[in-house]
Amino acid sequence: MDTMLIQLTNQKAAGLLRELEELHIIKVLKENATPVKHKLSGKYKGIISKEDGLKLNEHIKQMRSEWNSI
Questions:
Q1: What pLDDT, on the 0 to 100 scale, is given for residue 2?
Q2: How many domains in the chain?
């Protein structure tokens, strides 16, 4: 069996899901379950090397100083 996490964009969908559950087509596991939010820093940690990160920071600083001098 596959498990899916869905987000309802219309409350009418909740009624449809309840009807599907009554017909034993689906099973609602949890209502109003909020997905676990991960920190963005944790998601991208280790993607680029420390050296590339330092270069990127220097480039960003340079761009900001150029922007502020306009």
A1: 87
A2: 1
